[in-house]
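Saturday, quiet lab. Running sequence design on the structure tokens for the scaffold JK sent over.
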């Protein structure tokens, strides 16, 4: 009898410990890849691409089978970080000052940090490179990132020379040299962050955002590239605009992501935290070429399903049964509310979320779920244009006007398309003429939505100002990523927080022809002669007053498009 009593006592103790473990705040890992398409997984039917670890993650997860993201990356990331439509956050595009998120937005990192989490980002932010727009000002304790939209893009350090291998990155806003392939580095830094969080006995939020498989494709894991050169790539290529060689390189980058997913899950198992760690995986938009996308039509930048559908896999063994699936329409702005419910975090009363928590659906609970509309719109330009490159999707119907992401304004005579998506997932039969009742109702709701999100702030689509002058910011790196086009040249919107002595350095990536550069800083004007072969020029002892300032640059001869400064560095002396 005493032996039985001890056994029962031991079992009770184990049950108490287990209950305490699973009632504790779960760790959260949010993973998003860049330009990986809906069909870029073995489990989605791709017979060429090898993704065993992602396929296993999918099998061990619950999934939303009708999950949507924006057609391009910055809008998706803004909605993911805030739980709100990106048009509420000032993010409308991917460059030229149009992808800087309003610093007053309350992010998922801030929400989790406020309830005791340690927070880290690893890879791609793409919502602002300067104070106060960086991850470190938006709730992240640890930041290990590249600048702008990716490596080998116009905001990277000139000396990086387009490297994905051994890239120059930024650790907690400090430029660092690295050794290794970029995707491996992000996951390795995330693993170190997880280990450190466990040693500190803190729950963690790790946001791993790869810049793979985004172009360019010149620097990829060599062994995997050679592997895919031997594959039947033609069977998954939908046109000949992307070469066979490029597809091999893209798939090499994706399999490298897959290998890192495997190592990450192994780490969670080894550290005995897998059961109470939420792992969420999604893509940021459709594939970066016209290739296999399952039954879907479209690619990155397009508003047909292939450009905006993504898997959403959520693995949480302690609370979610593997294989649970829901076909309710959902979107990127639902991810933050889902994490909030799972962790017990909240947002301030002043913050209005657009998304809904998907946790009841992921857990297979019987709940009343609204048949709501999902609204998505993305195109080039300083602000959105009504009815341009947009879609409305509910459980049965999809209204879309595919007027072109790269057009700032819609071309004439681009028709609307209406699909009975429940019976026509491939979007093949346009019913806009047959179902004018459905079209009229959806277009009215779209216009109400557009007017609502566009009036979130009085200056809704004006980019936030990059600030300099106090102890938190002594230098601004002004680049193509955050500049605005004006009638003659470019301008950057900055805020001088402390009057005083400043300096400016103009930098070019390569020697160029002789030119004259004109700078305007508020009421001050300067003319600078740049000699043939010069790559930089400095101006010192510039007295700048406190307040907003638009820094403008123009080049003569008219080389506005071909030879502006690569960087304009503004420094507080």
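Result came back. Writing it out in full:
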């Amino acid at each position: 009898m005493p032996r039985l009593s001890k056994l029962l006592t031991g079992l009770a103790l184990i049950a108490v410990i287990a209950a305490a473990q699973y009632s504790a705040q779960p760790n959260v890992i949010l993973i998003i890849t860049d330009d990986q398409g809906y069909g870029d997984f073995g489990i989605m039917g791709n017979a060429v691409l090898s993704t065993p670890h992602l396929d296993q993650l999918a099998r061990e997860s619950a999934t939303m089978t009708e999950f949507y993201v924006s057609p391009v990356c910055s809008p998706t990331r803004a909605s993911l970080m805030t739980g709100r439509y990106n048009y509420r956050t000032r993010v409308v595009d991917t460059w030229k000052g149009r992808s800087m998120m309003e610093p007053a937005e309350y992010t998922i990192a801030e929400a989790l940090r406020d309830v005791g989490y340690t927070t880290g980002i690893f890879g791609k932010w793409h919502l602002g490179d300067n104070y106060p727009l960086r991850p470190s000002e938006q709730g992240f304790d640890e930041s290990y990132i590249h600048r702008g939209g990716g490596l080998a893009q116009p905001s990277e350090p000139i000396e990086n020379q387009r490297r994905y291998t051994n890239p120059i990155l930024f650790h907690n806003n400090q430029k660092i040299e690295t050794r290794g392939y970029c995707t491996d580095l992000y996951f390795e830094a995330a693993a170190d962050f997880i280990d450190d969080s466990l040693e500190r006995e803190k729950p963690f939020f790790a946001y791993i955002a790869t810049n793979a498989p985004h172009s360019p494709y010149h620097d990829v894991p060599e062994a995997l590239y050679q592997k895919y050169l031997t594959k039947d790539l033609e069977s998954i290529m939908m046109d000949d605009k992307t070469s066979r060689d490029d597809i091999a390189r893209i798939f090499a980058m994706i399999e490298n992501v897959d290998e890192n997913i495997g190592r990450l899950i192994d780490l969670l198992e080894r550290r005995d935290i897998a059961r109470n760690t939420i792992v969420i995986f999604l893509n940021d938009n459709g594939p970066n070429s016209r290739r296999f996308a399952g039954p879907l039509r479209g690619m990155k930048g397009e508003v047909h399903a292939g450009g905006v559908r993504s898997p959403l896999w959520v693995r949480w063994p302690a609370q979610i049964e593997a294989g649970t699936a829901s076909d309710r329409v959902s979107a990127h702005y639902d991810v933050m509310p889902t994490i909030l419910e799972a962790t017990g975090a909240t947002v301030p009363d002043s913050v209005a979320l657009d998304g809904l928590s998907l946790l009841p659906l992921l857990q297979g609970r019987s709940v009343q779920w609204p048949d709501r509309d999902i609204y998505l719109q993305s195109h080039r330009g300083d602000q959105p244009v009504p009815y341009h490159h947009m879609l409305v999707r509910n459980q049965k119907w999809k209204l879309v006007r595919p007027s072109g992401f790269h057009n700032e304004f819609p071309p004439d005579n681009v028709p609307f398309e209406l699909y009975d998506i429940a019976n026509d997932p491939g979007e093949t039969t346009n019913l806009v003429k047959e179902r004018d009742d459905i079209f009229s109702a959806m277009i009215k709701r779209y216009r109400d939505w557009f007017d609502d999100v566009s009036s979130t702030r009085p200056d809704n689509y004006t980019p936030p100002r990059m600030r300099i002058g106090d102890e938190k910011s002594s230098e601004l790196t002004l680049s193509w990523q955050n500049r605005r086009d004006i009638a003659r040249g470019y301008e950057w919107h900055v805020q001088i927080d402390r009057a005083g002595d400043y300096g400016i350095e103009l930098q070019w990536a390569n020697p160029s022809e002789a030119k004259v550069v004109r700078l305007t800083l508020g009421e001050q004007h300067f003319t600078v002669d740049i000699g043939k072969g010069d790559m930089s020029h400095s101006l010192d002892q510039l007295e700048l007053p406190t307040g907003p300032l638009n820094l403008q640059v123009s080049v003569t001869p008219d080389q506005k498009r071909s030879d502006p400064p690569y960087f304009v560095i503004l420094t507080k002396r």
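Notes for JK: Residues 466-572 form a domain with the Jelly Rolls fold (CATH 2.60.120.260). The radius of gyration is 25 Å. Ask whether to fix the surface positions before the next round.
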